[in-house]
Amino acid sequence: MPIFEFRCLECGHLFEKLFVGANEKADLACPECQALSLERVVSRTSYAMGAGPGGNKPTITEKSCAPGSRCMTLDLPGPTK
Asked: What integer pLDDT is reported at residue 48 of this predicted model?
């Protein structure tokens, strides 16, 4: 069940909406001012990774992507598709 964050373009109120199914369509309105002009916000995330006793640590690969910049790839241990 995904939770999405939205910001009201009228009053700036930030709120979350839980969608029960991926295909659910909702008539979204700001809970503060009932405006219909909203934008979806990319939610902040927090991750903690580490290896427990006998566990594998993630592998970080760093490379140059463009002049003056670097890119990193994080390979997480665990099953793959």
From this structure: 61
Residue 57: pLDDT above 90?
no
13 touches 33 (CB < 8 A): yes
Burial class (CB in 10 A: 0-12, 13-18, 19+), 8: buried
pLDDT (tens digit per residue) in 38-48: 998 876 666 66
């999405």: which residue's tokens?
Answer: 4
Distance CA 65, CA 69 (A): 6
Q: What is the pTM of this model?
A: 0.49
Contact in structure between 9 and 44 (CB atoms under 8 Å): no
Q: Which amino acid is it at 28?
A: L
Q: Which pairs with CB-CB distance under 8 Å and at least 24 residues apart come from 43-48?
A: 43/3, 43/4, 43/5
Q: Which residue has the tokens 């006998």?
A: 54
